[in-house]
Amino acid sequence: MRYISTRGDAPALGFEDVLLTGLATDGGLYVPESLPHFSIEEIRSWRGLSYSELAFNVMHPFVDDAIPADDFRAMLEQTYKEFAHQAVAPLVQLDTNEWVMELFRGPTLAFKDFALQLLGRLLDYVLEKRKQHVVIMGATSGDTGSAAIEGCRRCEHVDIFILHPHERVSEVQRRQMTTVQGDNIHNIAVRGNFDDCQRMVKESFGDQSFLGGKTQLAAVNSINWARIMAQIVYYFHASLALGGPDRSLAFSVPTGNFGDIFAGYLAKKMGLPISQLVIATNRNDILHRFMSGNRYEQHQLEHTLSPSMDIMVSSNFERLLFDLHGRDGALVKDLLERAQQGPVSIEDYRWRHARKLFDSDAVDDKLTCDTIREVFERNEYLLDPHTAIGVRAARNCRRDPAVPMVTLGTAHPAKFPDAIAESGLSVKPELPVHMADLFDREERCSVLENDLSAVQAFIADHWKHA
Ligand SMILES: Cc1ncc(COP(=O)(O)O)c(C=O)c1O
Ligand SMILES: N[C@@H](CCOP(=O)(O)O)C(=O)O
């Protein structure tokens, strides 16, 4: 399998290099040159497989011969064994044909674990083989950071630097990152927002000279193709659990960086019957505004009760734009360069095509709280604020009540006690046992100004062999 850049001007790479590369040299994101396609019969034959066996079938064509099949199988087995539920991603029914798929049963309680606990193992495997070192530089609005630290902290060949927006993640999220001790783990709180952190990461990939040529950067954000690849699997898992592939499913996906919903879009292209994909955003609704009015326009980033989705510059949207533009990298490059100067639109026929692929909705804090309360009162089931946005958007956008609608449950409610309290419920979501002493653990974090050179100097000084 070969991977090409969405900006059309970087060398095509194999899986191993794509895993280590992050951004392409032309500033684009890597995507597979062609997608595998599974027939209905083949998908049907996967009924009854364990999550890791299913994951092998879905992902193996992307990994190809870069990793021997038995080694890859073993990695998947170890990864999903660590999840706290036998089903790995259990489905919970809220109403007739209305489901939540719980993607927060991994070690750090968010959907990021599905990909990042695997990514750590993949990196370790490849770096050990190459006897190579990398500096991981990642941006987080709260969840990627802890999942990446957990996934990579035992990797011998990495130093990891995670940038989060200072005072803009929940206390549980912050502590999940800052209380993990290790010489190779560094948390940086940037006096800015998530977009600032993500911009610094992307600019650093573009010019890595601050590392003095002694090592190279690797990415844990969903700019890394391996992240998206692992997130495709649970769409197949949900389908097979609910009667697929002989019936179609709809999905509602709480969206920020567009990685998770892009994985759903790929699952559909790979042959999974999906009749509807709903983009669910909070008030940082650039994607919803684009889907409703063909206007892609940055607004001021707002702080909401769903902080992990406080994102305006949505990385993976570029991967969709690439497809919408007939995979013409030059057109994508031109569009995204113009988007930095002001609002842009795409040709009407391309936009209409996007509208056929996705529905969308934006849910504000009040509606988020109403949804948390309503679902708890009716079902005694506690939603985290991000999942609540997905459930509300699913209800607002649903096209066919006869089709099962699955909202991706992207985080555990215990990560966001303030949002639960804000919704008027007195119930206190409990952290699982392995995190029971989270508030007693010592924190380690450096607060830096919103300044790329300060962040790069910090990294250059602190990586192990600097
Ligand atoms: C809890 C939670 N829900 C939803 C999202 C949005 O996912 P994506 O960025 O893949 O759109 C994120 C992070 O991005 C998240 O942490
Ligand atoms: N919501 C994310 C933001 C980063 O998104 P990613 O999927 O590109 O890593 C977070 O919680 O950090």
Automatic annotation (TrEMBL):
PROSITE patterns: DEHYDRATASE_SER_THR
Protein family membership: Belongs to the threonine synthase family.
One Gene Ontology term of the molecular function aspect: threonine synthase activity
Domain of life: Bacteria
Residue intervals of the Threonine synthase N-terminal domain: 2-80
Stretches assigned to the Tryptophan synthase beta chain-like PALP domain: 93-328
Keywords, sorted A to Z: Amino-acid biosynthesis, Lyase, Pyridoxal phosphate, Threonine biosynthesis
Range of residues in the leader sequence: none
Protein name in UniProt: Threonine synthase
Source taxonomy: Bacteria, Pseudomonadati, Pseudomonadota, Gammaproteobacteria, Pseudomonadales
Gene name of the encoded protein: thrC
Cofactors required: pyridoxal 5'-phosphate
InterPro entries: Ser/Thr_deHydtase_PyrdxlP-BS, Thr_synth_N, Thr_synth_N_sf, Thr_synthase-like, Threonine_Synthase, TrpB-like_PALP, TrpB-like_PALP_sf
Presence of keyword Transmembrane: no
Top-rank EC class of the record's enzyme: lyase
Gene3D superfamilies in UniProt: 3.40.50.1100, Threonine synthase, N-terminal domain
E.C. no: 4.2.3.1
Pathway the protein contributes to: Amino-acid biosynthesis; L-threonine biosynthesis; L-threonine from L-aspartate: step 5/5
Classification via Pfam families: PALP, THR4_C, Thr_synth_N
Catalytic activity: O-phospho-L-homoserine + H2O = L-threonine + phosphate
